[in-house]
Amino acid sequence: xxxxxxxxxxxxxxxxxxxEYQAMTHANPTDGAVVFFVGLVRDFNQGxxxxxxxxxxxxxxTEKSLASIIKQARERWQLGxxxxxxxxxxxxxxxxxxxxxxSSKHREDAFSACQFIMDYLKTEAPFWKKEQTTQGxxxxxxxxxxxxxxxxx
Amino acid sequence: MxxxxxxxxxxxxMKTDSLQLETIENETIGELKQRIMNSKEDWQGTLANNxxxxxxxxMVGDSATLTDHSEVAFFPPVTGG
Lengths: 153, 81
Known about the structure:
heterodimer, A: 153 residues, alpha+beta, five-stranded antiparallel beta sheet, 4 helices, B: 81 residues, five-stranded mixed beta sheet, 2 helices
């Protein structure tokens, strides 16, 4: 596997964090740090009890958009591997939605890049959540907090 | 022709996921939004606020211009992650 390896997967399939982490560290003696983030479906959002959610995306654009976000992160920090897995389709409470992992020689770059990628993904990548709540189906509204988080970069 | 796609809540509001429209030379995204909204009573106002646009899968602003065979997508602010 090349040193600066980007991996992107958008899929209905669940992922195994141990396997994803292994792919970050296997035969990678140059990087001393791996930071990863896992996003999960929670049972309460925007005032309603959530039963499950459906994630829609724009297939032709999704991977392109994620690749562009990773490219921007690489322009700012010295990174080794970047791995991004995002699920689509029907997800139950507590299921995993997203995995972002970044390796680098030192931890500062990995911490910053992981947050940067998540902040950009939240505001740029073409995914939309629809929650099935006790009050019916509701499209999740974008969050001003996410825009603020993105602006700090 | 240009191919126009709608996603998520906007697709539900439009009651369609795509449109095929004649190409108008040098038309901007802003003008295309107006053209679509004016073409059907039910679509009045649907693209006026809080709608993002992509041309050939890249996000653009209202001033972007379209060429023949462009793929245009309109969608609400994204909520992944």
